[in-house]
Amino acid sequence: MRNAGIYKAYASWADNVRELQRQRRVLERVALRMQNMQVSKGWSRWTENAMEARRQRAILDKMLLRMRNAGLYRAYASWADNVRELQRQRGVLERIVVRMRNAGMSKAYGTWRDHVVVSKRLARAATKIVLRWRQLTMVCIQLMM
Asked: What pTM was estimated for this model as a whole?
């Protein structure tokens, strides 16, 4: 019985030791995760700062290049403005030409339409004349009989 008590105490102590070791491992993993999170945050922040510094450096380089080549830039900007103006003027002229062509087509269509109207009127008048002539002929034939 005495051995059973010692065995129970030893088993309980061994369980406690194993539980403490398990808890220690869990706490170590939690601490490592927290540490890794801090390192990861630091790395992310450093990466963001490096990218921002690179972007700002590119902007500065572009500004310096513009300042160095200001005359060249002005000449290019003037040329680009002239090209845009010429394109605008070409568009205006093309619209004017299209309107002029359409005006000629419209005039031709109007003339054709007027001709058709006159032709129909003359055809109706001719039909009336032919009908009257036939009636008169028929009346003359009846009177002669």
From this structure: 0.32
In angstroms, what CA-CA distances link 33 with 29, 30, 43?
Answer: 6, 5, 15
Q: Which residues contact 73 (CB under 8 A, 6 or more apart)?
A: 66
Contacts of 66 (CB under 8 A, 6+ apart): 73
Give the closest residue to 28 by CA, choosing from 18, 16, 20.
20
| C-alpha separations of 132 from 49, 114, 140, 141 in Å | 104, 27, 12, 14
Give the residue from 59, 81, 62 showing the smallest Cα distance to 70: 62
**Structure-block tokens of residue 5:** 């008590």
Tokens linked to 106 = 């419209």
Q: Which two tokens stand for residue 54?
A: 């690179």
pLDDT in tens, 82-133: 999 999 999 999 998 888 888 878 888 888 999 999 999 999 999 999 989 9
Q: Are 102 and 95 in contact (CB under 8 A)?
A: no
Characterize 39-67 residue by residue with b for buried, 16 or more Cβ atoms within 10 angstroms of its Cβ, and e for exposed. eeeeeeeeeeeeeeeeeeeeeeeeeeeee
Angstrom distance (rounded) from CA 80 to CA 87 = 11
